[in-house]
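Feature request, filed as a ticket because there's no other form

It would be nice if the structure record came with a short human-readable summary line next to the tokens. Right now we just get the raw output. Example of a typical job, pasted below so the devs can see what we mean:
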Amino acid sequence: MRRVSILTLLLLAFTIAGCGTLVSSVQTWPAPDYFGGVAHDTQLIRDPSDSGDYPGFALIDLPMSFVLDVGFLPINVIFHVVDWIFSDDES
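Raw output as currently delivered:
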């Protein structure tokens, strides 16, 4: 029974982990922000009235968002470079 409880908690932790990273990547597509998940979670912790989300989830999600943001950093750099190369801006 104890093993089932631990597995359930781990599964729950992995399902909510990194949500800030995924939300910020979708909101800033096609050039995701660097460390957007951490920024999203800290914004939610600082001012929870912006959305219906519970700031406690953001506090739990913050360390995993940091890990995912570091993992996505090379991908974000590639997206920014490609966006810069193919952008229509003359600047």
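Something like this underneath would help us a lot:
The CA atoms of residues 18 and 68 lie 6 Å apart.
The chain has one domain: 2-86.
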